[in-house]
Prior knowledge:
Largest sheet: none
Distance between the termini: 44 Å
Strand content: under 5%
Helix content: 55-70%
Order of helices and strands: HHHHHHHH
Shape: globular
Low-confidence stretches: none
Radius of gyration: 16 Å
Number of strands: 0
Structural class: mainly alpha
Amino acid sequence: MSRKWWLVAAAIAVAAAVSLYLMGRNPICTCGEIKLWVGEVHGPDNSQHIADWYTPSHIIHGFIFYGLLWRWMRNRPLGLRFSLAVAIEAGWEVLENSPIIINRYREATAAFGYSGDSILNSMADVGWMAVGFFIARRIGLWPTVIIALLFELFTLWTIRDNLTLNIVMLVWPIDAIREWQSAL
């Protein structure tokens, strides 16, 4: 992949970070620390640091974006496909931190105290998506599908949440799922 596409992807990420800053998002956790990993799902540090239990979901985003963009644009440069994946993920990070989505998470999911991500966490999420994108490119379809399923099952078992439930609960909330997730 040429340097041009790396610069395009970086510019997209920077634009998202600036947008998040202008939206009033905190650059880092208000606790003043930067942590590599936060394992408490319902604590104030979740979605504020580099990695948390939702990191596998962002890696899966990369798997999905790689697969879809390969399917629809396989004759286009890898850098273009990667830049589009970064744009989609960065766009989601900006939308996810808008009041409408933050309030939706609070109303429809078990994320009762969710107040949005730090800019550090949002940019790390874009980075984790990029990791997933390049893993999918490297290992192929079936190993990628198996890893995605393992991620989904592991986070479902561990925190009663995953990418699939996150989408379901945002789009069509189910009270039984919310109650089950809240019991953790």
